[in-house]
Amino acid sequence: MNVGPLLRITNLTKRYPGVTALDDLTLDVPRGRTGLVGANGAGKSTMFRLLLGLAQPTQGRVEVCGIDVAQDPIEVRSRLGYMPEHDCLPLDQTAADVVSTFGELSGLPPRAARQRASDILDLVGLDEARFRPIGGFSTGMRQRTKLAQALVGDPELILLDEPTAGLDPMGREEMLALVSRLGSFGISVLMATHLLDDVQQVCDHVVMIDAGKLVVSGGTDSLLERTGIVTVDVGRHGEELVAALARVGVVAVAADAVVEVTINTDNTDNTDNTDQANHVVPEMDLVRDVIADLGLPLFRLSTRLTSLDEVFLRRSAVPT
């Protein structure tokens, strides 16, 4: 069993006439669920084409599941499933026909491919619709069909290009739940998206790129650092608490039915999370004591986590 990184990318550059789509990327991506984050035009689709061996890098090297894509693209593609962003399904065919055809293309005998297609369509919630023409499917059902065809060959890694594109809120949540389940089947995921909330919800690892350059790569939890903000919910008494905290020299504002208290951590950028957390504790004790002295109800008191949006904006603003 291969225990190395799922993807190893070394000095990867891809140039087209007049534009550099990817610019000297070097990173390892572990097994599990990884979000590939960037705005439209950041280089996500170009990276997928390079991983699939459908384009050649200008320079650099790409390894997928320990295999050099340039040396053996066919073997690499046998390990991959791919869900494209754009609508590309034959509308006059049924979901069962399409998915079983992809099963045969992956090497399954016709009968086994048909059974495998039935199992996968059941997994993605299309069991009852599998014999209906795709032309009558909703956007969500077409997205599920694309996911099913990517899964039918039992891939080691599945590439998802904007899997929640065009979905309503319920459809988006259902798709993300399906993506989250794939790990239980031993399938790793690389999900390209510009929606950081999707990544924060289902991914263990994040790779952020901007204009072809690497912004940051790391575990989702490690990137969600604690801020210098304490969130306090005292019901309708927010303004009273803000005034009381001001009297003891603590800066606070009432925002969205809660009070946000600014913690004065010195040199936060050069302080590790443990030291910062140790500094925050006395500040939280002071806030709690003020609340107790006022006799206010306390529904919640916690430090706020940085979102992936904040991480992306902070890191992409750093000059390279």
Give a short summary of the structure.
The chain is α/β, with parallel strands linked by helices and 320 residues long.
Low-confidence stretches: 266-280
> What is the CATH architecture assignment of the largest domain?
3-Layer(aba) Sandwich
Shape: globular
Mean pLDDT across all residues, rounded? Answer: 86
Radius of gyration: 24 Å
Question: Structural class given helices, strands, pairing?
Answer: alpha/beta
CATH top level assignment of the largest domain: Alpha Beta
Task: Give an account of the 3D structure.
It is a single chain. The protein is of the alpha/beta class and 320 residues long. The chain has 2 domains: 7-222, P-loop containing nucleotide triphosphate hydrolases (Rossmann fold), CATH 3.40.50.300; 224-316, YebC, transcriptional regulation domain (Alpha-Beta Plaits, 2-Layer Sandwich). It contains 11 helices and 14 strands. The strands form 3 sheets. It has a 6-stranded mixed β-sheet, sandwiched between helices. Strands 2-1-4-5 form a 4-stranded antiparallel β-sheet. The chain has a 4-stranded antiparallel β-sheet with strand order 12-13-11-14, with helices on one face. Strand 9 and strand 10 form a beta hairpin. Helix 3 packs across helix 4 and helix 4 (110-123) crosses helix 5 (139-151). The longest helix has 22 residues, at 273-294. The chain is globular and about 75 Å long. The model is unreliable at 266-280 (pLDDT under 50).
Task: Pick out its properties.
320 residues, alpha/beta, Rossmann fold, globular, six-stranded mixed β-sheet, Alpha-Beta Plaits, 2 domains
